[in-house]
Design a protein that fits this description.
With about 230 residues, this protein is of the alpha/beta class. The chain has helices spanning about 5-15, 60-75, 90-100, 120-125, 155-170, 180-185, 200-205, 215-230, and strands spanning about 20-25, 25-30, 35-45, 60, 80-90, 110-115, 130, 135-140, 195-200, 210-215. The two termini are about 30 Å apart. About 40% of the residues are buried.
Length: about 230
């Protein structure tokens, strides 16, 4: 959680224009220029119903979900900055987090740092504005399953439906069209041992998946402008 009650946010605001921060694991709440922003990091592997290995960096969806609810409901928080450097992970967990972010009423901005791979793509586009640094990459590939797979038509039909849900979410929350996403997912000439496509920051913007190429300062500046408009501050 980012905070236990409103007092922490109030204490942050009392510093005025001076930067103040409350750190809780992979989250930080900062206040400057009369605007309070909560920044949440999604890094490593996104855990679902099963835990990642102890050696893996991971993001737990059961921790992200209450944090997002707290940000949406707390009057002291003006907006959300989502920082991504993820290899992907559990599809349902990733989509659950992405749907929560896309459904927030407060201003939200995401920035891809390092990588926004696999289910990290829906997470990257879930914010109202998205950024990617020039050196970051995104991997777009078909849905995979781990463990025992029963080779029957129902299994493949379920995979296809799951993949379409991911494509629909990406299209709904970005400027890219479905056919382009499917083409990138099924490309066979880009990855030596797999199907799919790896794109860099500029390509992600050119395809319409991400809004802008930019760094942290650009993302924060955009978020603050969105907050001012949201609050009716000239």
């Amino acid at each position: 959680m980012i905070f236990s009650n409103n007092e922490e946010v109030s204490a942050t605001r009392e510093t005025g224009d001076e930067e103040a921060a409350e750190r809780h694991d992979a989250s930080v709440t900062t206040s400057s220029e009369g605007i309070c922003i909560h920044s949440m990091v999604i890094a490593g592997q996104i855990e679902g119903h099963f835990s990642a290995s102890p050696q893996s960096k991971s993001t737990k969806y059961e921790q992200c979900i209450p944090t997002l609810v707290a940000v949406e409901e707390n009057d002291g928080i003006d907006g959300l900055l989502l920082l991504l450097n993820t290899i992907g992970g559990d599809i349902e967990a990733g989509l659950a987090i992405a749907e929560l972010i896309s459904g927030m009423t407060k201003p939200t901005v995401s920035i891809v740092l390092g990588g926004g791979h696999s289910i990290g793509v829906p997470l990257a586009v879930s914010a109202k504005r998205s950024f990617i640094v020039p050196s970051a990459t995104m991997t777009i590939h078909p849905v995979r399953l781990n463990g025992l797979v029963i080779g029957v038509p129902q299994t493949f039909a379920n995979l296809s439906k799951m993949q379409e849900r991911i494509i629909e979410f990406i299209v709904r929350n970005s400027r890219v069209d479905g056919n382009t996403v499917r083409r990138l997912m099924t490309a066979t000439d880009d990855m030596t041992t797999d199907i799919g496509t790896v794109i860099d920051g500029r390509e992600a913007v050119d395809y319409g998946i991400i809004d802008k190429v930019g760094g942290l300062g650009d993302a924060v500046r955009e978020l603050k402008e969105m907050i001012r408009k949201f609050k009716g501050i000239v």
